[in-house]
Write a structure and sequence with these properties.
Blueprint lengths: L2 H5 L1 E5 L8 E7 L18 H7 L3 E7 L5 H10 L3 H4 L15 H7 L3 E5 L17 E3 L13 E2 L2 E2 L8 H14 L7 E7 L10 H6 L3 H22 L6 E7 L19 H4 E2 L1 E4 L7 E8 L3 H8 L2 E5 L14 H4 L10 E14 L2 E12 L2 E6 L4 E6 L15 H18 L10 H9 L5
Parallel strand pairs: 2-8, 2-9, 3-12, 4-5, 4-8
Antiparallel strand pairs: 1-13, 3-10, 3-11, 6-7, 9-11, 14-15, 15-16, 16-17
Helix pairs in contact: 6-8
């Protein structure tokens, strides 16, 4: 099936009073919202983003669909949940049948470029779809993560690039390859807050925790990129979005890293939108999801998609946030947020027992987590217990049952294109080598 038929999309430019902006999407790997000064952290990890956020719309409750880089970025690019786009674990590929944001913008006349910071986002996994330029190779001397083979794939060159190299590449594209005749879409992915935490010495001296040092180093390099965007006269004509693919456990529930669960520290991420004179400076307290990025960006780009009625297919599963960005609308507090952890064969991820998949739903102040293989049913009142320490499933069975029903209905609707699959023996061996499963 062709990509065009898969979603049956017809693109058109909408009649809109706003001009079409450049689109700049910055993705911060492994960056939990509450460890950024942008979101009130008491250490100055993100002074540049905090200052930038003062003239932006900030979403306080933004959620990644999984605490995993590949699946979340596939959601950012398709507007589909991982269960639907089918990329449900790192090292697997996004199907060419899934139409991406870059493809849609390219068809609408945008110049498209991607600069990524790690092999996880390599083109071999389908992430380069629609990008005219996609920079995904790294020098070994720039790498912090030493791997020659990763999840069954050979790594040629280095595995990743540090934030200064990522910013250098993005600036070079803006200065040397950007066309003045067309609006552009630039995607920049920073890998640095991901372990093994090797920030420059100056940052390690300033922060007690190496994770904070990594975030601060990345923030400084983002600040340098934003300064260049401004110096090139692009700031007023650009919609700049900053978010993250997932958070980091930091032992809050016994896990120092991510991928093992769907707790808040792993899936709650920063999200800000900036477009001077067009987007309000405000804070939105209602929940939103990264599946919302595609329809929101396409609204700004004045690109609409019409669906062939005979196919009865929705082009994406998120919802545009334009009503809040431009019109001051209120995000519903009772919106359901859906979360997912990939399927694992029985074993241990570091010291955490895993078996099967995990699913979660947040609605209002309640969060429900279920894992059939692990015998888990958890209910948390995030209003009084934001760190998810007290399981209330026995005290509130009616609420748990209602959320369980909503979660089941969502799973059934989302699983149309792909279902969670057990890890192959090769997948498991690769994860064991990385220390994810014992």
């Amino acid at each position: 099936m062709s990509r065009a038929r898969s979603l049956c999309l017809t693109l058109c430019l909408c009649a809109c009073t706003r001009e079409r902006p450049n689109i700049i999407l910055l993705s911060l790997d492994t960056t939990r919202a509450d460890r950024t000064s942008l979101y009130g952290y008491d250490k100055p990890t993100t002074p540049h983003l905090a200052d930038f956020g003062k003239s932006s719309t900030r979403f306080d409750l933004a959620y990644a669909p999984m605490s995993c880089t590949g699946p979340t970025h596939a959601t950012m690019f398709t507007g589909l949940y991982p269960l639907t786009h089918g990329l449900i674990s790192n090292g697997r590929s996004l199907s060419p049948d899934k139409v991406t944001l870059a493809e849609l913008l390219q068809r609408a006349g945008f110049q498209t470029a991607g600069v990524v910071g790690s092999f996880v986002m390599n083109r071999k996994f389908g992430f380069a779809q629609g990008f005219e330029s996609y920079q995904d190779s790294f020098l070994p001397e720039h790498a912090t993560f030493k791997a020659k083979r990763w999840l069954g794939s050979d790594v040629s060159g280095g595995f990743d690039a540090t934030a200064n190299n990522t910013t250098d590449r993005a600036i070079r594209w803006l200065e040397e390859s950007r066309s003045s005749r067309h609006p552009f879409f630039l995607f920049v992915h920073y890998f640095d807050p991901h372990e093994p935490y090797r920030a420059p010495p100056a940052y390690r001296k300033r922060f007690a925790h190496p994770y904070d040092a990594e975030i601060a180093f990345m923030d400084a390099e983002i600040g340098r990129l934003l300064e260049k965007i401004d110096a090139l006269g692009l700031m007023d004509d650009s919609l700049i979005i900053v978010t993250a693919d997932h958070g980091q456990g930091l032992m809050q529930h016994g896990d120092p890293y991510h991928n093992a669960d769907v707790y808040e520290e792993s899936v709650r991420v920063p999200l800000i939108f900036h477009w001077p004179g067009k987007i309000r400076s405000q804070t939105i307290t209602g929940p939103v999801e990264l599946v919302d990025l595609v329809p929101t960006i396409l609204d700004a780009a004045q690109v609409t998609a019409e669906v062939d009625e005979s196919e009865h297919l929705l082009p994406w599963q998120g919802r545009s946030l334009s009503y809040a960005l431009y019109d001051g609308g209120v995000t519903p507090t009772e919106r359901s947020v859906f979360l997912h952890r990939q399927h694992y064969n029985p074993g241990k991820m570091r010291d955490i027992a895993v078996n099967g998949s995990l699913f979660g739903i947040r609605r209002g102040g309640w969060k429900y987590v279920v894992g059939e293989g692990e015998g888990r049913k958890e209910l948390y009142d995030l209003t009084t217990d934001p760190r998810e320490q007290k399981n209330l499933v026995a005290e509130h069975p009616t609420i748990a049952a209602e959320l369980s029903d909503r979660l089941t209905a969502w799973r059934q609707s989302a699983e149309g294109a792909a279902s969670p699959a057990a890890l192959t023996s090769e997948d498991k061996e690769a994860l064991e080598a990385l220390g994810y499963i014992q």
